[in-house]
Amino acid sequence: MASQRSIAIVGAGLGGLVCARILQLRNIPVVIYEREPTPTSRQQGGSLDMHAESGTKALEMAQLLDEFKKVARYEDQNIRIVGIDGTIHFADEELAEGQVGDRPEVDRTLLRQMFLDSLKPGTVKWNHGVSKVIQENNKATLHFLDSALEPVVYDFVVGADGTWSRVRPTLSSVVPEYAGITYIDIFLADVKKNYPDLAAFVKGGMAMVLGDNKGILAQKNGNDVVRVYAAFRKPLAWLDEVGLNSLVEGGKHAEARELLLKQFEGWCPEATGYLKVPCLSMDVRPLYQFKNRHTWDTNPHVSLVGDAAHVTVPNGEGANSAMLNGLDLANAIAENISANEESWLKAIKGFEVEMQRCGWEPDDELTLDAFISDGDAAARAAANMRKLMAMAMAAAGGASH
Ligand SMILES: Cc1cc2nc3c(=O)[nH]c(=O)nc-3n(C[C@H](O)[C@H](O)[C@H](O)COP(=O)(O)OP(=O)(O)OC[C@H]3O[C@@H](n4cnc5c(N)ncnc54)[C@H](O)[C@@H]3O)c2cc1C
């Protein structure tokens, strides 16, 4: 192929945005088609910690590390694991000097906006939800949910459209499955100002109160916000049976909080305190994942990054690996943009094989599955956390010799 391939990305989440930014830095034209009507039409979620080998690396390669440092919260990286009776089983105070500090937190909205601001004007076509991708005549055609929008044709399409990707069916028939755990996602505002005890409990980061196949996970965000996940290991039907879905959808937050409090009867007041105060927003989030490693035959016209390729339950890696995928795929594209078919396919396959390997390495002992479990989940989680930290210390020590 002599001329440059034309490239489109579906989805302006972190995976798609990193991919677009790197392509533009490498002078490759790119358009992102995004379903949301505007950059601010949806609440983007809570705090993310950036990992050196993935999220931070993508920020650096995107030449946005200095911008990131202006909004990052290096002081909010602490974790506490607490039993339902209030016993603290693990606290960051146990960590040796130097163990805290390389996973800075950032509010997802700020991070996403930083990438949006870095793109050339008009790169993102808002309100362009893609309904399907048809591959024919050595091209990929995007069709839109809004039938008034004309289909558009590209040489290569990156599916960065998350868990329920409309691009993925071009490559595989796999669909995510309910992971057996649902989060009730609650945002509390002005926490330090109005509820100093709740702010103190979450300290500089995250407090996870675990047990009895449930959890209250409180996460400090910027701007005096605390995000709380009330987590349940329950079948999907339970959400309707107890009326949670209809209460939350109907905006009846006070009644929903009453219902939640009943579920956590007998839990320590530090944890239930988060459910007793009015909230800014509340959402029901059933968690979905691929049960197995997701692979497909490489296609010269379509690939995937992030959750579209390897969604798992939240494990602190999802956004980070979506960013790394965006970086790696953009580099593979840029280096082969005018290459012949064989070299192009080899480059895309090389990216996919590595992504599929890395995107599926669940750590048995520190997964959400292990956290939201029966018996004394907190004590087990704390023991596993210590074991992993010791292994990380040993590895770091070994590497320096
Ligand atoms: C409750 C919860 C907490 C989490 N916490 C963390 C954490 O602390 N750290 C971490 O690293 N990860 C976390 N994750 C995982 C992380 O959110 C995802 O892995 C990450 O957002 C994936 O990025 P992405 O770009 O692949 O997809 P997304 O962020 O889902 O972005 C997809 C984009 O595509 C758009 N889109 C969707 N469909 C279409 C369509 N048909 N047409 C056009 N556009 C479309 C969407 O509007 C969206 O903008 C968490 C996940 C959940 C559910």
From TrEMBL:
It comes from the Eukaryota. PANTHER family: FAD DEPENDENT OXIDOREDUCTASE DOMAIN-CONTAINING PROTEIN, MONOOXYGENASE ASQM-RELATED. InterPro entries: FAD-bd (IPR002938), FAD/NAD-bd_sf (IPR036188). GO terms for molecular function: FAD binding; monooxygenase activity. This is FAD-dependent monooxygenase. The keyword Flavoprotein applies. The keyword Oxidoreductase applies. The lineage of its organism: Eukaryota, Fungi, Dikarya, Basidiomycota, Agaricomycotina. Residues 7-204 form the FAD-binding domain. Pfam families: FAD_binding_3. Keywords: FAD, Flavoprotein, Monooxygenase, Oxidoreductase.
